[in-house]
Design brief:
Length: 757
């Protein structure tokens, strides 16, 4: 099946290329935007990392190349792209850089554990993952069961819309291992303008990981279609997301000693020889998102002030009199007074005929946003050990078929006054109202069998506002809030804001100060309040969670230093917990993990929890030698409820140089490390991470470095990487999640190519 999908993706890309060749390649773009025109066609944090290229070189007129006429010069293709993201609530445009196609550390793009290795995951490509750094955790995805699967999915707030000088196609391929254990990823991005103010495109991403341990294969297919129109008065963004995801669940290995104490077994075991808890269990998610935001701008036309060099010059007297008849010219030549009167009249006529250029100045906007999400979750299990799950609520444990589905529809209307239409208007102000409809379906049971599906519907109506300052050299800010006035979650509210300030240091240096804060009073997710399945069942009344966070970042580009400090207080924290109950077995002295049954439950903390975090990023450079460090210290007041490693580190040492001045090379190694802690366990029946019960047997992981060696190459529009992951594989506690070992040493490679047509 996956080969068919790969073929379909490549065919779609070829069709896009064929369409792109028939589109005009003239320079396009919106008047107030700046295009990146470096050789890769993307804006990047460090433009010096790129090779400039203006286009294809002209072929000599006397040379003949097979299949084409070289007597004519090749037409240069304009290269450049402007990209932006949008705020999902109001569709506000936010200029952005395309981080998916940066040259620096390209090989890390395909790491499920993140660019800086901050995620713990189950080992395989696109497997469920959880950030070890609490302050970086987000809930961007619209569905509870998708949150751990963020690696292979695209969120609206992260998606890049593109305005291009010429049609752009980016093709990416990543590979590792063989047909039994390896992984593949094919990714295609296409963007093209229709005219100066509108464009279309798509993103297709397919991942398939077979897994180095039994029953751990994963597959993800995700596709996005987008279109936009950004005229003076009317603006529109359209975005759709279609995805399918399937994970095989093995429940972890039977005994951790296979990894940290292999000498205790009479023979040597490879990763595929190690027995796992489950062998025929799967989680499957299908989801679609339809998003539309549009606005109509109200304003006025204003004359454009031109510099004197661009203003039209008054014609000379001879040029003004030239259209007159010869007889009239003769009369005027002999009558100075009459000549002056005629010239004054002609000058006035010429002045009145000049049309001054004008521009549209938007004053306010009427906004409407519609977002529809459809989601379908399935859990299948066959030949499940009878003792693996503690609870059996209905049906045959050897034939698990759990299912749930959800539909959410959100409509938002707003009215805004825009920043900067007058010099004294230093901020933008927006008021909005929103209605959200949610419907969830869960199975009902009668006589130990499913009797049907029960629908739970929720509605809420909220109002809110926003103030922002996006223009100016030194200070920018944005703050918004909303409160639910009617519906099921009446009383919910949230307020958040961010600001950045540039502080000059001398004439050539600036310190950047960024601050972020929020306060939220929100109802826990529906699936924390209601869930029905064969192994987990609850209907709970939970109190609203109260969260307050303040966070700040101080950075300096010249010294390559960044310090982020954050603090959060959480009241009524709702979370999943997993209990492992010891079961009797034939050998009373045996302590294998197969002796435990598993039960997932919902808990709500009775006391407040505080989290403090500090992250230091410091880079050093000495000639071609580069050393980058990302160090995080964090602490939690309740490690049993919200476990976190005290220290998390990422360090990267590499050489950066060029060969023949055109081939950019990164050659080095990086390391990930975190201190020991009782990490959240993984519950395969829900596809979620859950806190280990402090009153039951627990597993501690960490204090194990993971070292990767790599080579990243960049030549014009092509990026290539070669990488060896986990080069220090050997004996030790090689786990990123309890009972889920890190993959053995693996070799990866990938290529990414940009085409401009």
């Amino acid at each position: 099946m996956h080969k068919i999908l790969l073929a379909a993706i490549m065919m779609a890309c070829c069709m896009a290329e064929a369409v792109a060749q028939n589109l005009p390649t003239r320079r396009v773009g919106m008047d107030n935007q700046q295009f990146s025109t470096n050789g890769d066609g993307y804006g990047t944090p460090d433009h010096t990392d790129f090779d400039n290229e203006s286009g294809d070189k002209t072929v000599g007129s006397n040379r003949m190349i097979w299949g084409r006429d070289t007597t004519k010069q090749d037409k240069k293709v304009p290269i450049g792209i402007f990209q932006w993201t949008i705020d999902p609530r109001l569709g506000t445009v936010i200029p952005a850089e395309n981080t998916d196609t940066v040259v620096k550390h390209y090989g890390n793009f395909h790491n499920t554990d993140g660019y800086n290795g901050e995620y713990s995951y189950l080992g395989n490509l696109a497997a469920p993952r959880l950030s070890r750094i609490y302050i970086n955790r987000t809930e961007d995805l619209p569905f509870f069961f998708l949150q751990p699967l963020s690696y292979g999915l695209t969120t609206l707030q992260d998606f890049r819309f593109s305005n291009t000088l010429s049609p752009l196609t980016n093709l990416t391929y990543h590979s590792c291992g063989n047909r039994q254990t390896g992984e593949d990823r094919v990714r295609a991005y296409f963007a093209s303008n229709i005219n100066k103010v509108s464009g279309i495109g798509f993103l297709v991403d397919y991942l398939y990981g077979r897994g180095y341990y039994n029953s751990s294969q994963n597959s993800v297919f995700n596709s996005n279609l987008f279109g936009y129109y950004r005229g003076e008065r009317y603006e529109m963004h359209l975005w759709t997301d279609f995805g399918h995801q399937k994970n095989a669940e093995n429940g972890g290995i039977e005994d951790d000693k296979y990894i940290y104490d292999p000498q205790s077994f009479p023979q040597k075991y490879g990763s595929k020889d190690i027995p796992t808890m489950l062998n025929d269990t799967y989680n499957r998610n299908d989801f679609q998102t339809y998003y539309l935001t549009h606005r109509y701008n109200l304003g006025y036309q204003k004359d454009v002030e031109l510099p004197d060099s661009l203003k039209p010059q008054m014609p000379s007297d001879q040029e003004l009199l030239k259209p007159l008849t010869d007889s009239l010219k003769l009369v005027l030549a002999n009558d100075t007074l009459q000549r002056n009167l005629v010239l004054d009249s002609l000058r006035t006529k010429w002045t009145n005929s000049q049309v001054m250029p004008t521009e549209f100045v938007p004053v306010s906007s009427i906004i409407h946003t519609l977002e529809v999400n459809r989601m379908n979750h399935r859990h299948y299990g066959y030949d499940t050990p009878e003792t693996y799950f503690t609870n059996h609520y209905y049906g045959d444990i050897n034939r698990i078929k759990d299912r749930t589905q959800a539909l959410t529809v959100r409509n938002t209307v707003g009215l805004s006054m825009l920043e900067g239409f007058k010099k004294w208007v230093k901020m933008g102000i927006t008021a909005f109202a929103s209605h959200e409809f949610e419907r969830y379906s869960l199975p009902t049971v009668q006589a130990d069998t499913i009797s049907g599906m029960k629908d739970y519907t929720e509605n809420k109506f909220s109002v809110g506002g926003e103030i922002s300052k996006a223009y100016g050299q030194w200070l920018h800010y944005r703050a918004n809030g909303q409160i639910v006035l009617a519906g099921d979650d009446i009383g919910e509210f949230e307020a958040e804001g961010n600001a950045d300030l540039g502080i000059p240091l001398g004439k050539r240096d600036t310190v950047q100060l960024e601050a972020r804060a929020f306060i939220r009073n929100t109802m826990p997710d529906f699936y924390l309040r209601h869930y029905h399945s064969q192994s987990a069942w609850w209907d709970r009344e939970l109190d609203m969670e109260k969260r307050m966070r303040i966070e700040g970042t101080l950075s300096n580009k010249r010294s390559k230093t960044s310090l982020t400090v954050g603090f959060e207080n959480i009241a009524k924290y709702a979370y999943l917990g997993i209990e492992k109950t010891l079961l009797p077995k034939g050998d009373a002295n045996s302590t294998q993990s197969t002796e435990y049954s598993h039960a997932v439950k919902v808990h709500q903390a009775g006391k407040n929890i505080q989290v403090f975090s500090a992250t230091l990023k410091q880079d050093f450079r000495l000639g071609p030698l580069n050393w980058e460090n990302d160090l995080t210290f964090q602490t939690t007041s309740s490690a049993d409820v919200l476990p976190l490693p005290k220290f998390n580190a990422y360090t990267n040492l590499y050489l950066l140089f060029r060969i023949a001045r055109v081939l950019r090379v990164e050659l080095g190694a990086d390391m990930r490390y975190f201190t020991k802690y009782y990490a959240p366990d993984y519950a395969p029946d829900l596809g979620q991470f859950a806190v280990q019960d402090s009153q039951k047997p627990r597993v501690e992981i960490g204090n194990y470095p993971i070292i990767n060696a790599y080579a990243n190459l960049h030549l014009k529009h092509c990026r290539i990487y070669f990488k060896v992951n986990h080069v220090n594989a050997g004996t030790g506690h090689m786990f990123l999640a309890p009972h889920y070992p890190i993959n053995p040493m693996t070799i990866h490679w990938g290529v990414s190519w940009n085409f401009f047509n």
